[in-house]
Design goal:
Blueprint: E1 20-24, H1 28-40, E2 44-48, H2 51-60, E3 65-69, H3 77-86, E4 95-99, H4 104-112, E5 117-120, H5 125-189, H6 195-212, H7 225-232, H8 245-248, H9 256-279, H10 284-295, H11 316-330, H12 342-351, H13 359-367, H14 369-380
Helix pairs in contact: 6-7, 6-11, 6-14, 7-10, 9-10, 10-11, 11-12
This protein binds fe (ii) ion.
């Protein structure tokens, strides 16, 4: 015997089946009929006369299932389906299409556009119950899966935050040690008065400008170049810890032999940082520190040391460092020379364009001239100058 909506076959579902059903149907009679049966199944029923009203209803809160008529004024069932598919929020709400038509083409169209099931009017009770229950169970499983995924993402984010914090703490401790060594090397060497701090900030400015305006002649720099060079720049003269005080503080010009020894601060710095890199691999700034320590006295035309590299064979970080290092040395007082005026230092920098320095970086340096002057003034303010014996080193800044 055929059972319809008035059949006693409907039973109140288990509490876990409770959910909300949005009935989108223009006929008040059919709407009421469906609503009564939805309620008999223990679900909450909400109603809309057409697709446009359904959108308003779903904007208030999402149902667990939509029972959708096809032929309606204002906005038809297929039109509503298209809009739901286009919405990242509504796409996951399951839709059961109902139609009085035996129009399989329309049903296929709706299935292709996101409907999960269909029923033909008049409904058979068992089919209505089975399909609605199945649809809502599937929606609940989907919601549960989404919730678990959200929890997993939150958990992973929390885990990553904890790991990052630990890495930051370890890296911070390592950097404090390394930075202290750099300061020690600097303090033994000369009256440089915050040379390390100024040069790292000039490197940072240049690297940031290079990111905004990359050199077309070489691959674009990595996004983290400014931060990494700011951290790595203080390592440039770390190799001076291996140079004796006698040599570092010699108040006279170095002999050629002594200068050869002085040049080894590049390779000594590289070797020291290579050891750190081996023990703690994966630190981008240590890798960059190695490049800078080894290559910051190389020159664009190949007349530098220790390896007489030229042009783009010199790592970018070291080319940036060379400019910052020389400019800062020129514009600050040493016991063997007064501080040079900015304009005079710029003439020397420009004269070294394409000889000592990367020409593209010199052009950026000129563009940043005002910023560099301001930065230097700001950092010099309040810096107490020290005076100590200092020798002039050939080719050394
Ligand atoms: Fe150096």
């Amino acid at each position: 015997m055929r059972r319809d909506f008035h059949s006693k076959v409907y039973q109140r579902p288990h509490m876990s089946q409770a959910g909300t059903v949005l009935i989108v149907e223009d006929s008040p009679i059919i709407r009421r009929l469906i609503r009564d049966q939805v309620k008999k199944l223990g679900y909450e029923a909400r109603e809309a006369e057409n697709g446009a009203e359904a959108l308003v209803e779903m904007d208030k809160s999402l149902p667990d299932c939509v029972i959708l008529d096809l032929m309606m004024p204002v906005m038809s069932g297929p039109e509503l389906l298209e809009k739901m598919q286009a919405s990242s929020v509504l796409r996951d709400v399951p839709v059961i299409v109902v139609t009085a038509l035996s129009d399989m083409d329309k049903i296929v169209y709706c299935i292709d556009h996101g409907a999960v099931d269909y029923m033909q009017k008049p409904f058979r009770a068992q089919i209505f119950r089975a399909r609605l229950n199945s649809c809502i169970e599937r929606k609940k499983l989907h919601d549960r899966e989404m919730e678990l995924q959200r929890q997993l993402v939150d958990h992973n984010a929390l885990l990553k935050e904890r790991v990052d914090k630990q890495v930051r703490e370890i890296t911070g401790a390592q950097m404090s040690t390394i930075f202290a060594m750099c300061k020690l090397a600097e303090s033994r060497d000369e009256d440089t008065g915050n040379h390390i701090d100024r040069t790292r900030e000039i490197c940072y400015l240049l690297a940031k400008r290079l990111l905004e305006k990359p050199n077309p002649a070489e691959p674009p720099p990595p996004e983290d170049l400014p931060e990494n060079i700011r951290t790595a720049a203080p390592l440039h003269d770390i190799g001076k810890v291996a140079i004796s005080d006698t040599l570092l503080q010699k108040p006279a010009k170095l002999t050629p032999e002594e200068f050869e020894t002085m040049k080894t601060h590049t390779t000594a710095g590289y070797a020291l940082l290579a050891d750190v890199d081996r023990l703690h691999p994966g630190n981008a700034f240590i890798r960059m520190g190695k490049e800078i320590a080894l290559n910051h006295h190389e020159k664009w035309d190949g007349t530098g040391y220790p390896n007489s590299l030229s042009g783009y064979d010199i790592p970018l970080s070291a080319r940036i460092m060379a400019l910052a290092d020389v400019y800062d040395a020129l514009t600050h007082e040493r016991c063997y020379k007064p501080a040079m005026l900015h304009e005079e230092a710029m003439r020397i920098i420009l004269d070294g364009r394409g000889r000592h320095f990367d020409p593209y970086l010199v052009d950026l340096f000129v563009e940043l001239e005002r910023d560099i002057i301001d930065l230097t003034k700001q950092m010099d303010a309040g810096t107490e100058k020290k005076h100590s014996a200092r020798r002039e080193t050939p080719g050394e800044f």
